[in-house]
Specification:
Helix content: over 70%
Low-confidence stretches: 5-13, 15-19
Structural class: mainly alpha
Number of domains: 1
CATH class: Mainly Alpha
Mean pLDDT: 87
């Protein structure tokens, strides 16, 4: 229980910080000729962009659910309130699980090149790919009608 609370605390502490981070305007992907260092920087830049986009999408999905919960509370619709609470908790739990999977998967991808200079680039590319997949997943589940996540 303590470990779960610590993980939840860390996750919730990270999200506001990540949301406040600004994506640098300098795009290292535009630099020529490309060295391995520049390719690493480019892959890292692309991941930070994707992560910033994911944070925006996640916050918007969470806000829609919180707004729905508030409306249900206003109407004293306890059944809907409980539904929304469960939906919010499920999204948080799925995000924690996704983060654990993402970290393990991308570490494994980078370890294929351990000792070489490509490891950081491969790991960043993996992070970018899985982050973009998460964005698509969230949009497929939580976008509806005029509820757009971006």
């Amino acid at each position: 229980m303590l470990r779960e609370n610590l993980i939840l605390f860390l996750l919730l502490s990270y999200l506001p910080l990540a949301a406040q981070q600004t994506v640098p305007s300098h795009n290292p992907c535009d630099e020529q000729p490309a060295s391995q260092r520049q390719m690493d920087d480019c892959a890292g830049f692309q991941y930070r962009q994707a992560d910033a986009r994911l944070n925006k999408v996640y916050r918007k999905a969470m806000q829609y659910m919180k707004d729905d919960q508030t409306r249900a509370e206003t109407k004293s619709d306890q059944r809907q309130v409980e539904y929304e609470k469960t939906a919010i908790a499920s999204l948080k739990q799925s995000e924690r699980a996704r983060l654990a999977y993402r970290d393990l998967q991308c570490k494994a991808a980078g370890q294929q090149y351990e000792g070489g200079s490509m490891g950081p680039m491969i790991e960043s590319q993996c992070l970018t790919t899985l982050t973009k997949h998460r964005i698509a997943d969230l949009k497929s589940v939580y976008e509806d009608g005029d509820r757009k996540l971006e």
